[in-house]
Amino acid sequence: MAVCSNCGVELEEGQKFCFECGTPVPQSKKCIKCGAELALKMKFCPECGTKQDGEPKAVNSDGFNMGNENVIAGDVIGHKEETHVAGNATIIKHEDQTKQVKKCHVCGSIVPITQGFECPECGQFTCDDCYDEKHGVCTSCAEKKSNDSVDQYKNALKEVLADGRIELSERKQLNALQQKLGIPSEVARKLENEMKNAGAEEKSLTIFEDRIYNEAKACFYDEENVKKALELLEPVYQKHKHDEKILDLYLPALAEVDSEKALEITGSLEIDVLSAYITEISLAVRNRDFDKAEIKIKQAMRMWQVNALVNSWRVAFYYAMYKHFSDKSFLDKAKEIAETLDETQNELELSYAVKMKAVLAEESGEPKLDFNKEFCKENNLYWHIMQSDFCPIYFVEGNELAGLIESLKPGKYVINVSGEIGEDSFEKINKALKNDKLEIKLNLQNITLTEIGDYAFENCSGLTEITIPNSVTKIRCCAFRGCSGLTEITIPNSVTKIGSWAFENCSGLTEITIPNSVTEIGDGAFDNCRGLTDIIVTDQNAHYTSDNGMLYNKARTILLRCPERKSGSFKIPNSVTEIGFCAFENCSGLTEITIPNSVTEIGNAAFRNCSGLTEITIPNSVTEIGFCAFRDCRGLTDIIVTDQNSNYASENGVLYNKAKTILLRCPERKSGSFKISNSVTEIGAYAFDNCSELTEITIPNSVTEINGSTFDNCRGLTDIVVTDQNTHYASENGVLYNKARTILLRCPEGKSGSFRIPNSVTEIGDSAFDNCSGLTEITIPNSVTEIGVAGFYYCNGLTKIRIPGGVKVIEGDTFCGCSGLTEITIPDSVTEINCEAFLECTSLKTAYVPKHLNVDDVFDAYTQIIRK
Predict the structure, then answer these.
(1) What is the pLDDT of residues 138-165, one digit of tens each?
(2) Domain assignments of the chain as residue spans, ordered by start
(3) Domain 204-386: top CATH class
(4) What is the helix (H) or strand (E) element at residue 521, kind and residue range?
(5) 449-657 placed in CATH 3.40.50.150
(6) What letters, b where the CB count within 10 A reaches 16 and e where it falls short, cover 391-426?
(7) How far apart are the C-alpha atoms of 820 and 609, rounded to whole Å?
(8) Distance between CA atoms of 451 and 479, rounded to whole angstroms?
(9) Two domains, one topology: 204-386 and 752-868
(10) pTM, whole model, 2 decimals?
(11) Which of 59, 293, 538, 547 is the most exposed place for a label (fewest CB within 10 A)?
(12) Rounded Cα gap, residues 756 and 245, in angstroms
């Protein structure tokens, strides 16, 4: 086999560059005598017949050449006349006196000089039988050369093993030296093991550690005791991190339990250990990363050429390739290698070898073996290896799919499904796929299915890829919502409808193609797909089109969806008249959007959560701006409306209706104090939502209407001030009330410490204390008879609360998210508690409840109910 001229690594046939150092590999050679161009494989020159085994042979000075020029005319006799010795050549007169023979200095046989050569090392005549082809010298010199090479390699090993370990850089140097000296891999490995064993006594385990080691080893024969074994081994491993004996046991087992930690350890190892390679190969094969597996196998083979562990995983590699590509040649290769698995030296090698032979036997139709606890103990086999999935590709009937998924260990799998999946089975499948430690490619191509139902795969985080059968015509509402692991999906040309929120929160998708057949795409179908860069519509689709990854209606008059991963600047085409519902929602990477004068309508939530925008201009043409169009635009400082717009106006970057009587939206980046203009009579819904840097808002006399959620998420707001002459509203200590102060409408979220509600208040409005997390104590007076929905929503600073005696109903979400609440007292007046009133009250330990109330579905099991 050829070797690299630079680093000495063995090269595969036909290789053009060295895979270790990149040095170009010559593809031909020249004759050592006449210079003719020869193929690398040629051993003799076709031009001059010279053997290509080193330097040109020297002319024999002791004898005669056999060419015609040496024939002596008439000097031919019919019998041998005499024998004499001249120098080291024995000359025998035969019928043809020009024939000459010599004595081989190795074996002593006398042969014609044409059947021998002069050794280039010692210069003595040697017969062909005593020629060492590998070294190109006589066998005597070859043996001496081999011994010298072994001694040289031993010295290098001794130097490397001075600290008891071989680092990766040192391993490369040893490999190069091994190739250069021509030492076979098995000889090099034997020398290495001998020298390691010779110096192992002083670094050996203590008696106590050795006992723990054997106890852990015994656990491997038992069912599901791998974790226990690893717990036992952990302290020994921490002390002997470079001990191959420990690593051989620890790493393969760890790969079964925690693959990420196993890879982390192998990646940080500074020494060259077989079990580290085996661990990386095994995980690469299981994850179908065939390129990585092949590279690691080749590296391991160069260092451990004859080894049952390496060969077992070579079998697993080719078997996995066969299952993945359905190519029988891979199976044949696996069977060929499996025939070499008889030579095993320990339980680890034996376990892998037996497992792989069993896998191939089962593939050939033989009964599947039951590798149970008793079998493993009797045969010294590691149970966790016998239960491993060497090739995670499955073929299963639809009604068995859920059970299969439930049985899988963490890892990557391909599952091919056939037959039918009943409606009742989808709920079980959905539950099984809600496992983020699984990565499953699900092929449904061979099942009979007409639609993917509502919520069919919702929140199936273990689903990474799915092939939908051509029989499906509808993908229903929320079918794949929350499939955060989904990276690839092919929608067949049979699908006509994609339901609302069908792919919402599929953050792993980067691209999706809409086929010709689709006629309807529901609202929010691609919402929160944060990795999506392109929505592609095939050219023949009659209802939709795409341009630069953006989704439009066919006429390109409605911009329906911009993929959330788009970034930088974007100019909406002049053909667009409408920006659709949630069209740019969550496009946080966009820093500039230009709206052309053709646009007349901006849909609901059109620019919601475009946090990269700092400014946006509304052109004259816009006549309608939808609800929450600019909500959650946290970087927005200015909304600018051109002067000629007949429906809207702006002042200091704040959006109003044309008459400036309705304040529609304050940009979220506004900060400090803000005084609303005296012309304003109405503050719109969510007008100040998320304006977290505002500290004070002054409401003038003119305001007669404040819509819901106006001040939501204003986390820096400490004061809402109403001027005295306002006839509809009032304020006290920065808290907003109706004019009569009987309804507490809104407490600013920035309030902190203790707060006592005035005795004039009879009603706490909906979301009145929403997100007031800084308040630690709230005193509710006996005058209060009504608490609105979500009245104390996420007041997680509260620890205790007493509800006054006049309250009859505790509405939904009233105390939702009050995670600091430990105690609550409910009066006898309460006749009804909504079941979600105390949702997420995770610290609630005690609830004082009247005897007549049924609270079975109200409080969590860990809350102690004390009846009054």
Answers:
(1) 888 887 777 777 777 777 777 777 666 6
(2) 1-46, 57-64+86-132, 140-201, 204-386, 449-657, 752-868
(3) mainly alpha
(4) strand 520-521
(5) no
(6) bbbbebebeebbebbeebbebbbbbbbeeebeeebb
(7) 30
(8) 10
(9) no
(10) 0.60
(11) 59
(12) 70
